[in-house]
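Justification of resources, computational component.

The compute hours requested in this renewal are based largely on the per-chain cost of generating structure records like the one below. Each record pairs the submitted sequence with a full structure-token output. That output is archived, and it is also reused by downstream analysis tasks.
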Amino acid sequence: MEIIYGINKPMESNCWPVVTLGVFDGIHKGHLRVINKTVNWAKEKNGKSIVMTFSMNPKAVLGVKPSSMITSLEHRLNVFESLGVDCTVVMEFNDDVANIAADKFVDNVLHKWIGVKGLVLGYNCSFGKNGTGDKGMVYMLADKYDYEVFSCDPVMLDNDIISSTLVRKAVMTGDLKRAEEMLGRPVTILGTVVSGSQRGGKVLFPTANLDLHHEVMPPGGVYGTSARLNGKDFYAITNIGKRPTFEAELIIENGYLETVVEVHILDFSDSIYGQDLEVKFLCKIRDEKKFDSANELKIQIEKDKQTFMEYVKAHGL
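The structure output for this chain reads:
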């Protein structure tokens, strides 16, 4: 997948571009409907599917306190590529972009820069200054700029329209089954492996500590997961929490207890510092708890591994 940062690199001509645009936080079933239509329409026309997204949450620029992202930019780019998107344009949402009139965006960006021929909209898509670039305006300008428009209906779950807000709430409250139903896939997080206390490697098991780039995560606990690294999947036990067994030592070291994400990849011992790791949540094994000693914790982790592998076997994973 080609990635273009900013509106600067010339687009190739004569490729019948099909474009959609949005933040696509979470890339839930509603987003999937939009992106799959974009990809399939481009294939039908022997054209090029293009997703336009933002490097940050536009709410931060508009003065609205943004929620944590479900999927960071790096995570979204991975998913876009897996869905067959040909090109992603990553725009920085700054004051200049926020103040572009919607008709000027259609003229200067979609028409003159991209040469759009097909435009796919989500049911509530809006763009341009004050969000005036809506479905009605896009249809009104279609003949002038010689493009076609397809507007997607919302995707429902029970009586709710699936949205990033609902997905975020489900993840943060630990309702991973509900989140999976809205996403169409298990909940995942993407993080960069960073150096931790290395306490696990010394007295327990080697773990990868993740920097999630402000992605939301499930509540504290021990989870059965799979970890994807360099295109390969490994079974893993993932702990989210404050490591209460080592509470006193951590307070002395840091002055506080921070929430950490530690991934113990089973039957794996390579050094992966600095690499990105995607973690897929398959089941919750137990809540995090404090043990009287590191040895008791080690025994419990062995039990957690056994519990998880029994789950894997029972569910044919």
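The first strand starts at residue 2 and ends at 5. The chain has eleven helices and 14 strands.
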